[in-house]
Amino acid sequence: MNTHPRNAGTGLKPEWFEDIAVNRTASERRAASLATRRTVKKEYQAAWLVKAITCIDLTTLAGDDTEGRVKRLCAKARRPIRDDILEALGLADEGITTGAICVYPTMVPHAVKALQGSNIPVASVATGFPAGLTPLPQKLAEIRYAVDQGAREIDIVITREHVLTQNWKALFDEISAMREACGDAHMKAILATGDLNTLRNVYRASMVAMQAGADFIKTSTGKEDVNATIPVSLTMVRALRDFGALSGQIVGFKPAGGMKTAKDAMLWLILMKEELGLPWLQPDLFRLGASSMLADIERQLEHYVTGRYAASNRHPLA
Ligand SMILES: O=C[C@H](O)COP(=O)(O)O
After folding, report:
1. Which portions of this protein are annotated as coiled-coil regions (predicted)?
2. Which end of the chain has the least Cβ crowding within 10 Å, N or C?
């Protein structure tokens, strides 16, 4: 996936985040202005939506997941846009796929099998997803299991208690151990920001995760009461930018959870472009974690091509 060096981490440096204040009102104002700053029309919008598809971690994380469901999802990842729409867009030969598939550890072998012959990576959640309250040795074993089964990306969850009690050393040590267990697999650190109470905590947890070597920071599991929001994402990308300036390391960003529409996708793409610039509009540095956003994007692309909206049951998956 990545074309640049991985984040090597920096060691724990509380001085980079302890005195930081995040102004919630200003973050909310900036978040609201993003939606109005840039309107992207017609062919540009279609191009941005195709870009969004290439950045989706197409996800299924349900208790009733089966090999059959994972196979269907993988087929959609290989061919996320219907052939006739793709042809009308002039993209038939571009090999458009989603950024990755994201599943539970026991579903990894099914996904690897279904994606054989493609270059679509399988991402696995691990470490007692979603609550992250299993003992550390079992969390690390779960990472190793998923990697052994062929996962090339691991989405870990942090222990929220370490953030809520400001125990940065415990948080750093935990994430560093997870990073080591990942080996060559890229690690996304899920902060579960809906559980962290303040934007200041979100900033601090982002910094610690990056200092511990996270290749991506990710907002949410999709299972918290509040998942990806723009003010939280803004706080995280600002931390990411500050970390880059202080360390020279490059880290990716993954909003996840509750994003369902093409409009959501556009909003997050605009956020990335405005805050971080074009390199963060590529799948090696940006992913949209979503189980049910692709259908609306495909529907909007069909509308662009035909001038009509299809019934949503014509785009039944994802
Ligand atoms: O990591 C991805 C999320 O779990 C997906 O959440 P969602 O089902 O709300 O799209």
Report:
1. none
2. N
